[in-house]
Write a structure and sequence with these properties.
UDP-N-acetylmuramoyl-L-alanine:D-glutamate ligase, eight-stranded mixed β-sheet, Protein-Tyrosine Phosphatase, Chain A, 37% helix, 17 strands, disordered C terminus, six-stranded mixed β-sheet
């Protein structure tokens, strides 16, 4: 399939497996072996978890690079461009490099079927292996045990949090989901757990593998200060940070990232860490904007645990309306139950693809959950944004945009455009 550009490749991959969720490593491992079983870097950190993975990866990339290391990262999903999924030494992979990787993978796979995500992970591993990297930070897409990222043996594993999401594939309780996340652990290699009370399934797996455990508030911690705080980690690592970076980076995720970095091992330099975090930006994570005379917040809170965390950190003095959309397989009832006490009105938008749903379908699902919460349905994210903005201007509210990555991406594009209908009057 030579001669395709990146967009043609992505369209092709989406059409090959538009509905398939084919968990397992046998197929992707066979193709990886045909590629020569490349290792993406000399050291590997794998990051799993229900929420917080992207924040941990971003903090790790910034901190490690600030110490002079050549770092590669892979994340998913992307907001705007597929290239965001593969970062090498601070830059997104180019279209040409990704296409070249896809072509190598296509030759290697012969008649083996691969999913869109498996192509993406193999491309990331292939490109990183060619870049002479010191560290690769790999974000798990779904679960851990059967995720394509788990091809690679991690020197350090991170489990940021465990909660309910993707229950159809991972299980419907924290213990079952924890078992899947713990699949990224390796014998004798450390695991960083970014929550105070992890499932016992995670701790049991670590004990079976004799993997050293570094658990939040037991082996490492974050102590709040007036503006910043102090990280205290295992092996006597400690440093003070003058002020916290972007509001989206929770102290627990920052502490997990710092603990993981120190286990490479790396002696953390306070000045370098401060510089790295000062420039850290997390698009789509509690991202605040002032556009068209209004205050907006964008957040990819796409499961109940993430929504609860988001709501807890909203400005309690402000009035809020929300533009909201989510995929059909999400627990929208629990999400909106957590959101409703802080929201005056919901502006519902559609989600695309085989997992998507119209705003009208979403509204029907909410009728029995929050019957008294005012809500309106719209045919596009742009229409929902315009209506929410007009309401917010009239009633003195701020606008929260939350839910699927596709919604936040569409909202971000819409806000960056020149919209006469939202010009401050």
């Amino acid at each position: 399939m030579t001669g395709r550009n990146l967009q043609q490749w992505l369209t092709h991959l989406e059409q090959l497996h538009p509905k398939e969720m084919d968990l397992g490593l046998d197929r992707v491992r066979a193709v990886w072996a045909q590629l020569g079983s490349p290792r993406p870097a000399r050291r590997v950190i794998t990051v799993a978890g229900t929420n917080g993975k992207g924040s941990v990866v971003a903090a790790l990339q910034a901190v490690l690079a600030s110490h002079g290391l050549r770092v590669g990262v892979t994340t998913s999903p992307h907001l705007h461009r597929f290239n965001e999924r593969i970062g090498i030494t601070g830059s997104e992979a180019s279209d040409a490099d990704i296409v070249a990787a896809f072509e190598r993978i296509d030759v290697a796979r012969q008649d083996i079927s691969l999913t869109y995500f498996e192509f993406a992970i193999l491309a990331a591993i292939d490109l990183m292996a060619r870049a002479d990297l010191d560290v690769a930070v790999l974000e798990v897409g779904l679960g851990g045990r059967l995720d394509a990222v788990n091809l690679i043996d991690a020197d350090v594993a991170v489990i940021s949090s465990v909660d309910l999401d993707h229950e159809a594939w991972l299980g419907d309780d924290r213990e079952s989901i924890g078992y899947e996340k713990a699949g990224v652990l390796r014998a004798g290699r450390p695991v960083v757990i970014g929550e105070r009370s992890p499932p016992q399934s995670v701790l049991r797996r670590a004990a079976e593998l004799e993997a050293p455990v570094f658990q939040l508030d037991r082996d490492f911690r974050w102590l709040d200060g007036q503006q910043g705080g102090r990280f205290e980690g295992g092996y006597d690592q400690a440093l003070c940070i003058e002020r916290l970076p972007a509001a989206a980076l929770l102290p627990s995720n920052l502490a997990a990232a710092l603990q993981a970095a120190s286990l490479l091992p790396l002696e953390l330099d306070p000045a370098r860490v401060h510089h790295a975090l000062d420039g850290l930006r997390l698009p789509g994570r509690m991202q605040t904007l002032q556009q068209h005379g209004l205050d907006w917040m964008l957040d990819v809170a796409h499961n109940p645990h993430a929504v609860a965390e988001l709501v807890a950190r909203l400005d309690a003095q402000a009035r809020w309306v929300a533009v909201f959309a989510t995929f059909r397989d999400k627990r929208v009832d629990r999400m909106v139950e957590r959101l409703a006490p802080r929201i005056e009105k919901l502006f519902l938008a559609p989600t695309p693809g085989s997992r998507g749903q119209s705003a009208e379908e979403l509204e029907l699902r909410l009728a029995a959950v929050v019957p008294s919460l005012p809500r309106s349905s719209f045919g596009s994210a742009g229409d929902a944004m315009a209506a929410a903005g007009e309401y917010a201007r009239t009633h003195g509210c701020r606008v929260l945009v939350a839910g699927s990555f596709t919604l936040v991406a569409a909202a971000s594009r819409w806000l960056s455009a020149d919209r006469d209908g939202l010009e401050a009057g």
